[in-house]
Write a structure and sequence with these properties.
Blueprint: E1 4-12, H1 19-25, E2 34-35, E3 49-50, H2 64-67, H3 72-88, E4 101-106, H4 112-124, H5 134-138, H6 142-151, E5 157-159, H7 166-179, E6 185-192, H8 196-204, E7 234-242, H9 243-248, E8 255-264, H10 274-288, E9 297-300, H11 306-320, E10 325-328, H12 330-333, H13 340-354, E11 356-357, E12 374-375, E13 381-382, E14 387-394, E15 398-405
Parallel strand pairs: 4-5, 4-6, 9-10, 9-14, 10-12
Antiparallel strand pairs: 1-7, 1-8, 2-3, 6-7, 8-15, 11-13, 14-15
Helix pairs in contact: 1-13, 3-6, 7-13, 10-11
Length: about 400
């Protein structure tokens, strides 16, 4: 079994498009949620809140020929991959295209705007607005495929379209591909573009925040008075590499991935199951060969939904049996769906390397139904620890847990 390390990271997020700047933004204790006037046009849509990517610009060298198969999801995925490869010192390395590099990357769906063009054919009974790139923009593997096309990778390609675990599952699958000897390098992560249809899905489930006039006060994960989630967008790319290869070339190493757990509930498509959520964490600890006492901080999924927060907290306490420090990045960014696992992993690594951990914003009074954990509130805290866990859970009963270690 080979060791796997993170040697490159990049993101496009509501916190910005630079990893260091995004980390510093956490210290302002201000969320990225905004009232969105454009949502007023949709009748019976209750929430008017969203969280947009800040500062993303399509690179000038991306020609029309290059972008013809890219919707917004693919554009952010390819651009952050380019920055992450550059960060890793691998951007022009022959290893990217000689078969030793693979991809594990996902999103909840393809670009919805292009999907609408396909549905328009059934509504209008006319083929229009479709071209040779339409299907590639629309298909669920659009991020992974466009990354492969742009960087000419020839290794394995693993599309991870698993809703809110798309990004974390991409990282986990990439970790396993290197650990088990199939690849030397893996491009991993997830992305999601902001679409009214995504917002409407959760709105119909009465799961969205309705604090339309006070966007700075929501979402509020684990809080007694939380009223739902806010949908956001973004992309996160992590370059994973076999440890000996990274060490030999003198690469900087952000962290080592030492554990990954992936379980399914097998019970209900939307209601979370604390037992199987906890199983994912236990599985990650088992493969990391460490005890739960060695985890210094947990990056929670923390969506600010009533059932989700309670189930996650109970699952966490059942595994850790202590008030382990925990907080939710979604209190800053909103729920970026397929991108959240990757963006949150990047920020968890940054916090670990800086010994500073952000609070859950708007967490004033912990819901009495949530298990007793070390909820970080009001301000960030300093913890000098070496190992962190990052958890994500998705519709379909899909549970993931990643463990990162300083090296």
């Amino acid at each position: 079994m080979r060791r796997v390390v993170v040697t490159g990271m990049a993101l496009a997020s509501p916190l910005g498009c630079d990893v260091k700047e995004a980390f510093e933004r956490l210290k302002t204790y201000k969320n990225c949620v905004k009232y969105t006037p454009e949502l007023e046009q949709y009748r019976r849509l209750n929430t008017k809140l969203s969280s947009h990517v800040q500062g993303f610009v399509i690179p000038e060298h991306y020609t029309r020929k290059v972008t013809r198969t890219m919707g917004e999801i693919a554009l952010m995925s390819v651009a952050t991959t380019e920055k992450a490869l550059e960060d890793a010192g691998l951007l022009n390395d022959e290893i990217i295209s000689n078969g030793e590099t693979g991809i594990a990357y996902g999103s909840s769906s393809g670009s919805i705007s292009t999907l609408i063009d396909f549905y328009a054919m059934e509504v209008d009974k006319e083929v229009k607005n479709l071209n040779s790139g339409s299907y590639v923009k629309m298909m669920s593997q659009t991020a992974a495929v466009n990354i492969s096309l742009y960087f000419k990778t020839k290794g394995r390609l693993i599309p991870t379209s698993s809703a809110c675990t798309s990004g974390s599952m991409g990282i986990g699958a990439a970790y396993e591909a290197i650990k088990d000897g199939y690849q030397t390098i893996m491009i991993s992560g997830g992305a999601e573009e902001l679409q009214p249809t995504h917002i409407a899905i959760f709105d119909t489930l009465y799961a969205t925040s309705l604090k339309n006039t006070t966007p700075e006060l929501t979402p509020s994960p684990f809080d007694k008075n939380r009223d739902g989630l806010v949908i956001g967008a973004g992309a996160g790319t992590l370059i994973l590499e076999e440890y000996e290869h990274a060490k030999k070339r003198g690469a900087k190493i952000y962290a080592e991935i030492i554990g990954y757990g992936n379980t399914t509930d097998g019970t209900h498509i939307t209601n979370p199951n604390p037992e199987t959520m906890g199983n994912a964490m236990s599985e990650a600890l088992k493969y990391a060969q460490i005890s739960s006492d060695e985890i210094g901080y947990i990056n929670a999924h923390g969506t600010a939904t009533i059932q989700g927060d309670i189930a996650e907290s109970v699952a966490t306490y059942n595994v850790f049996k202590r008030e382990v420090p925990i907080s939710s990045l979604k209190s800053y960014t909103g729920h970026t769906l397929g991108a959240c696992g990757a963006i949150e992993a990047i920020m968890a690594i940054e916090m670990m390397n800086n010994n500073w951990y952000h609070p859950t914003l708007n967490l004033n009074e912990v819901d009495e139904n949530c298990a007793p954990l070390g909820y970080i509130k009001k301000e960030g805290i300093e913890i000098n620890n070496k190992i962190v866990m990052s958890n994500n859970f998705a519709f379909g009963g899909i549970n993931t847990s990643l463990i990162f270690k300083k090296i």
